[in-house]
Amino acid sequence: KHLCFLPASMYTEIQRERPDGGNILTHPDYIDGNPDLIKPKKLLNPVKASKSHQELHRELLMNHKRGLGVDSKPELQRVLEHRRRDLLIKQKKEEEEAKKLQSPFEKELLKRHQRLDQLEKEQEKQEDHAPEFIKVKENLRRTSTVTGDEKAA
Question: GO molecular function: any one (predicted)?
């Protein structure tokens, strides 16, 4: 029978007819008071038993009592983030100062390195625009000098 289609008065009559008072769950055997049986203990939830969960729950309750929102961070976390941010800013400033305080020798080396890179790029561009027969001729010269060196050795 489906009880959801019955009128409310019939449902209450069915409830009254049950001898166990409407309780569908079976009763455990250990209530009988048998001393030979080991009574089961309720298992602990490992999440709720953990210290971090308890501390977080306590903090949430305190914040709720104070009227703070969930979005606001605890003081310790704010302080740690502030310190991290300050440390990063300090490191960036030190790096910038180190770049500014480069010796003249290091600056000159950097300039020469940049010039060499530019020259290499220009040569690659010129080689790309050169006709194909010139490229082939250069390759032939390279192979002929390599084979000539091998014969001499």
Answer: actin binding
